[in-house]
Amino acid sequence: MLQFVSDSHDNQYVREQSSSLADLTAARADTQRKHLLLAASGSIVKALAKHADQLAIRIVLTDSARNFLNGQSSEQPTVSSLLHLPNVEAVYSDADEWGPQPWRRGASILHIELRRWADILVVAPLSANTLAKVCERPLPLFPHTSVPAILKTRNNVQIVNGISDNLLTSVIRAWDTDTTIDNKKKVIVVAPAMNSAMWRHPITAKQVRVLAEDWGVQGDGEPATIEAGSATEATAPGQATSGGWFQVIMPITKTLACGDTGDGAMASVDTIRATIEARLGLQ
């Protein structure tokens, strides 16, 4: 859990206390603000600062994201400063999912409570590693395919990966994809970011196609054109009428973290901010 501080540090104390499961469960009753679950860019939080009365933010950090932020340039906040950013109520890591006390039957589960709390999940940047964990598919497999149907075709179709070995991927794996659990349509927005060679790899193309087309949120009934820096909404043959649950904001061309100039850079903060505002109806 986040480091405990004394009551004298009022704002910091309140925010760190809000990382508890009890507070998270209670926070679901807050219907006056929209709930954004964000992994992991602090610059997006800053861009949404003007919505102080409309938006509550909780941040999920993977171990890789934590290491990346700690070594970032001045354009990104440090991990220790995330709780001081506007609208941020709590920051979670894998340690919060697995401890500090052993889970007992009947107790709340963090990744489930985060899904229930969130109106939207935004993963920006989405790394090649997390993308690979979320999905991999050499042959078409439509959403909402039943387990028996999958097992019947296991010799011809590799089952889509749904690896959930950290807090973030557990939330994604537990997402209510057809609104039958939470009774509410909720979207996962992802903004891939990686080296140009990784972005151009055929495996990446297949994985992105799963998110943008097979599992993409329903638009006007036609597959969307995937363009750099654009937010795609695509459907696939056989997709349920309720539509998918992923929206992909495609990368752009710029100088990458490795020093190369090419495609694979995360879309601009303004593009991601505008997508969040549109999805949540923020004015």
The CATH topology is Rossmann fold
CATH class: Alpha Beta
Beta-strand level of the residues, as a percent range?
15-25%
Radius of gyration: 19 Å
Low-confidence runs of at least 5 consecutive residues: 1-17, 138-142, 150-160, 220-228, 233-242
The strands making up the biggest β-sheet line up spatially as 3-2-1-4-5-7-6
Count of discrete alpha- or pi-helical segments spanning 4 or more residues: 12
Main pleated-sheet profile: 7 strands, mixed
Instruction: Label the CATH architecture.
Output: 3-Layer(aba) Sandwich
- Averaging pLDDT over every residue, what do you get? 77
Structural class: alpha/beta
Quaternary structure: single chain
Give the beta-strand count: 9
Gap from first CA to last CA = 34 Å
How many separate domains? 1
Helical amount among residues, as a percent range? 25-40%
SSE ordering: HHEHEHEHHEHHHEHHEEEEH
What does this structure look like?
- The chain has 283 residues and is of the alpha/beta class.
- It has a single domain (10-280), classed as Rossmann fold (3-Layer(aba) Sandwich), CATH 3.40.50.1950.
- Helices cover 32% and strands 16% of the residues.
- The chain has helices at 10-17, 21-27, 42-47, 63-70, 94-98, 110-117, 128-134, 147-152, 167-173, 196-199, 202-214, 269-280, and strands at 34-40, 55-60, 88-92, 120-126, 187-192, 231-232, 246-249, 252-255, 261-265.
- Helix 2 packs parallel to helix 6 (110-117) and helix 6 (110-117) packs across helix 9 (167-173).
Keywords for this structure?
globular; Flavoprotein; disordered N terminus; phosphopantothenoylcysteine decarboxylase activity; coenzyme a biosynthesis; 32% helix; seven-stranded mixed beta sheet; Rossmann fold; single chain; two-stranded antiparallel sheet; 283 residues; alpha/beta
